[in-house]
Amino acid sequence: MSFETVFAPGRVNLIGDHTDYTGGLALPMAIDLGTTIEFERGGDLVELVSEIEPVRARVSIDVGDPAAVRPDWARFVAGVVAEVRPSSGLRGIVMTDLPVGGGLSSSASFTVAVSLALGGPRDPMTLAMACQRAEQRATGVPCGLMDQIAVASSVAGHALFIDFLANAWSPVPLPESLAVHVIHSGVPRRLESSAYAKRREECQVAARSVGPLRAAEPSDLQAIADPVVRRRARHVISENARVRFMVHALRTADLTAAGALLRQSHRSLRDDFEVSIPELDDLVERLTKTPGVYGARLTGAGFGGCVVAFADPEADLATFGGWRVTPSPGALISPPAGSSAS
Ligand code: GLA
Question: Residues of 81-90 as b/e, b for ≥16 C-beta within 10 angstroms?
């Protein structure tokens, strides 16, 4: 018997939330927390135990409907099996240091790791789309593609500027004078019971009035009669612009401008897109009052989970708990030569 290991990181989205499923822009980066699977191949079951799940996942390689599989976490395994259709199974153990439901893509990290263990696609877009479909089939949540692309294709020391219209991405170097922190609100979230699908629908309604939101201008907003839908569209249009400004701010190491963009993004997600909660607002407020912090915002889908903060490397954020995260390589990207990571 020979054991193999795969690893897929989580990600933090620096800016550009609820834009991916409208053909917009986002700027995530993979982080140094993620999912490891140690496994041996064989049999016709995919059988996984997890450090954080009481009941093991046992999925036949010819599984039918992934959504019907139990326990809950096994639906993700089944979703990937249904996409990859491996010719043989495996037995393994899952280890993760990502908070589940924390907005750090624990599920994309897990599905990408399972796909790699099962010999799934190595082409980044094919892998990302297979894992997106796996998650959608497992949970019914119409998630976008940001998490899977960031988890697969991020580059060490960089964020990934992703254009979801072209489905293309390019790495943006992060200044050395920037420390990225991720802090959990303590409120876990499940996208299935959230308004995620509703927000996606509202964006589609907006696009019926003004055309694709990616091409829309703020002056188009007056054509949207429903004030709620108008606010949703205003978030998406302004967030796409903020992603471009952020790329410029990071390239020029203008961290004051970068911090202001984080704060604007949070306000937009809170007031226009309405995906924040008081615990996230409170964290963002306390962080932005902390010496050495440039700005903070909720990250990912919202409804709970984490905030991301930009800080001076000397800033002391110990009282917030959380992690200072390193921009890390995606699961398909080899670590730089000389790195000890395997
Ligand atoms: C979740 C989804 C992503 C994206 C974000 C919000 O993480 O999986 O596709 O829509 O929410 O930006």
Answer: bbbbebeebb
